[in-house]
Batch of 4 targets.
Target 1
Amino acid sequence: MKTVCIIVGYILTLTTACAQSISLTDFLIFPRLDSTYWHHDQERINSNYDGAGACETCFTKTEDSVRDTHCIQTAFGHVRLDTLFNNASPERLQGKWTVVKAGAFVVSDSTSASMDRFLRNIRILDDQKAPVGFIEFTDKKVHVDLTTTHGRQRDRGRYMIRNKQFLLARKFIGRACSPTIVGITPNGFLVMDVHAYGMRIKMDKYFVFTSRITRLILQREGLQTVSSVP
């Protein structure tokens, strides 16, 4: 049985009037671009894994004094869902949620030895507008049924919420793994993010930090959400 995090990687979006007002890159928190504060902010944003990185896998290579690191199945990223939305629980998730928007984007922050600020670039990789589907939660189990341009994705399994921000999906036998960062916004959207993270560093020359976020945004079935973004 696939984990929910893998399925989220294929999720696209249902085009609705409500969804049109939501940007794929809303609800994020970033480090300040002043290099004096960037590292402090980045550490604060990632200060509480609470065991959510148990299945993180990283690959590193060094060539011509340039070190590249790439991590998957990670809860880490130099940008992430705003910590104000660390409010998930099985009680709040219970019910059926319909897809309103999804896709993938990359955020890159870079600087060099001659700069005192980071440069930020946000690039949309995939902002789909056709498929439909839902995710339904009980207090212990999750049911996924989504139809996308990649085909129909169906799955059932157990899950747990850790530290009100990480959804850890698992098979019926086995440990929880593959963190999905989740949160419910004040206007009722459920945001689910899967992260990949990369660093490219040439010491004393330049630094590039990249977060790839595969995102799913849903609204509770039967609930009229506010279309404006807070």
Note: Helices lie at 4-8, 35-45, 90-93.
Target 2
Amino acid sequence: MNLDPSRRALDHLQQVRLLTDAEYAAATNDPELPNALFRTPAEALAWVVAREIVPQAQLPDLPTRAAGTGQENEAQAIVSEATDLISGEFPLPPWAQLHIRLLDRRVHDGVSATALDQLLALQLIDAAQHSHSLSMLPTHEEAWAAPDSLAATLAWTVLRAGALSADDLKALAGRTAHDEIVADAMARVAGARTEMRATKTTTTFSVDSMDFTTSSSSSTSSLPSVPFAVPPSSTSQTRTFTWTSSSASESAPGGWKNKLIGAVVIALIALIALIALIALYFLFGR
């Protein structure tokens, strides 16, 4: 990803006083910044916390730094969004939570109503596909959005909106004067789905030196695996979680079943532990 959006977002954090000069210097000199996936101030702040430049415990108090600047409301909104980006239902560290969220957000970069209108004008999508896609457009912060992209938007209609199928996209090849757009979109779709089949995104960490592995797989994920560097203090962690993401255009009927199975497993573990404690009591407690 181009470094400029990332640096621009960090600059804004310093301007609204959410980063001190020292924290800003540490962030801009971080060797992982050129590989950063973020582009908005909230994403930048979440990244700074994930990189352990700012302690996560300090997040709730950061808006007070903007007191008296007239930017208190903006600072609070940035902190709230950043907090959401590093939080989730799974017990993953902040950098892993953020990695998942940013992968999902970057799929929407360049997708816009303007691009959909242009695709309709170029007859690369029809009126029904245009209408369906418009109803599913992601919400962007206009000041921080990626430039409109016809190819990215056309690929998104397949990967996320579900307005076109992969076969519909292939059928456009050679039938239009805009083959370069179609070819680019096809490459994006093929790249996402090839990486989906060939790789899995794995996060490794440990708590009290206990190994715990949770894995899942899906044949419908359209998010490629993108490197996300682990903060130095986390490199020795050994708990493993494996996850993939499913596209919004395809159903995931097994989701509630997985949660139910997980709850049953936890209940069984608790029951076994209770039985073991009772047995120990009768053996040694008397």
Note: The first helix runs from residue 3 to 15.
Target 3
Amino acid sequence: MKDIVFNYYQVEVRTYALVYKHIKKHYYFLNTMMILCPVVILTCIIISWFNAGYKMWLIVSCITSLAMFSYSVFIFFKACKRVIRKRYKISIGKGSWRTEKFKELKSNKLADFLYSKDIKTRWKIEKLIELYKNDREKSKLPPLIAPSLFIAVLTPNLTQLLFYIYKDKELMQPFTVLLLFVGCTFLSLLLIAISTSLKRLKDSIVNEVYQNKNTIREGLIDQLEDLLLRMSNEKEIEHAKDNLKLKEDTEYNVLRRKEMN
């Protein structure tokens, strides 16, 4: 059953099935630019490293590739909004096209399918989530280099590099040494912040565009967990309605007794 639910989600519910397959030109253009742009920039860096004569042309090439990539992202998200407005009649403002109504559309499609397959109870959905999480853990590849090992290998090289930076510290004033230390620390923190931001941006775009089985499975788990929350809310609403009805019946009976007395 879990394979049936997974296949249905993959073909009918996930974002590619609802949106991306209707804008394949924009989709493949963005895919191409995501591959081509880093290749062009890396090539320009390598060429400029060995030959500085083409520096101006290399800078222009890098700027052009970044501009093309930004343009591909812009028209891709614009096309996504157009599909959602026309096909699903969902109004979208200037912000993200992944609105709550669009998420609700996906949840309703999945809920209707589960209902048709007699998966209506909470424990069945929880069991599906558990099975998908087990599949996700089994399919994960171990990292090629552990972070601790990477730091252990990198630290001696950084130490040697800093030695050349601080080699004339005996000839420097204490304030100059302190300023150099603060500058190196600030530069290190800045590089960490930039690399973290770029990684988050890359992960966001890759998860948005390149959807492998693990990414699809993650989306399905999120949808099932959302259904569980909605089921809980529906039970609470029904319980509140029962309490309200009981309260009204009690007040009515009290009034009836007073009238009879």
Note: The radius of gyration is 29 Å.
Target 4
Amino acid sequence: MASRTGSRVAGSAVLPFLRSTGRLVAVLGLLAAGCRLGGGLGAELTPVVWSVVRGYAFISAIVLVGLFFSVAGPSASVAHLRYEWEVSGRSMARVLLGALGALPRLVGRQWLCLAAGVGLLVSARSALALGLLPVLVVGAALIAEAVEGGGQGVDGRTTQGTVSSVCVLALCAPFFALSSGAWGVAALSVYTCAVLAVGVAVAVHRTRGVPWRA
């Protein structure tokens, strides 16, 4: 299912945007690592660079997940998900997670570069927090689509409304408060798992209720 979803994304107009945003993420990670390894002025700029990296990573994660969901999210591919569930004999949750597995294949390496750079710049805990960020955004996006659904554009992609955007931002806002400190990252891990679990549950319920030929 991940391969099929990846093929659908590759055949759409969003792939260049995914790749370009992913490259910028990777470059930012390498710059972060260079700041720390360079010493001197780079070490003094570490707090500033970390603030920039964290903010940019937050925006990038939302953009990447939003672009991916516009082509392969539950609203955009409800017929494919429903059909795959009926013919595969697997649970809808496994089918949904299998489809979402195409996202790390597309941008996983770039995000690893970012996390590695932050690990050198700040700490391993901060790198883990950035690694959890895309997972948190995916869970928030699943909940947002269940709340508002998605409109179908003329190019076949889905577009989300204001309510969905506000929902994603509200659910992801705790990242900034919990992305530093051992207890904060531990709480962020629990929160991320909870948001993803709720997102998968509501997406499964919504997708199972829609005939795949719709």
Note: The beta strands are 151-152, 158-159.
